[in-house]
Design brief:
Number of strands: 4
Shape: globular
Strand content: 15-25%
Strand order of the largest sheet: 2-1-3-4
Structural class: alpha/beta
Largest sheet: 4 strands, parallel
Distance between the termini: 14 Å
Order of helices and strands: EHEHEHEH
Length: 140
């Protein structure tokens, strides 16, 4: 059996989908081909890169990609991580075997001091990690 192909989708492909891609790459190893994209890509958020680095996951080479790049590909699993992406999820010409929605807060909307904002980014990072761990547990 080949690698399980997974696409994480959000609006900006800046924070949540990047974190999910990073976690599944790290925790799932070579059993997965992992991608992330956005319906309106905005560039990878530097704070997402920072908090993932704190947890030992390197997102520094990640790019913010448009979902259109993946519409003709087959995926075993498509995970939307925000309501906006779920509502505006395009039709995929390729086969998508399973779809899931993980409603995760957008850390880019956090306000307050730099530390307040980092607390939100870390909470979202840890929530996404737990969701990825749960996903991996289901597949064992």
């Amino acid at each position: 059996m080949g690698k399980r192909r997974v696409l994480f989708l959000c609006t900006g492909n800046a924070c949540r989908s990047q974190m999910a891609e990073g976690w599944l790459r790290q925790l799932g190893g070579d059993r997965y081909a992992v991608f992330s994209a956005g319906t309106r890509p905005q560039g990878v958020n530097p704070l997402a890169v920072q908090v993932m680095a704190e947890a030992g996951v390197d997102l520094s080479s990640h790019t913010s990609d448009p979902v259109g790049r993946y519409l003709d590909r087959d995926f075993d699993l498509l995970v939307t991580v925000c309501g906006g992406a779920r509502e505006s999820c395009p039709v995929f010409a390729g086969q998508v075997r399973e779809r899931r929605h993980w409603p995760v807060d957008d850390p880019a909307g956090a306000s307050g001091t730099e530390e307040d904002v980092l607390v939100v980014f870390r909470r979202v990072r840890d929530e996404i990690r737990q969701r990825v761990v749960s996903l991996l547990g289901e597949e064992c």
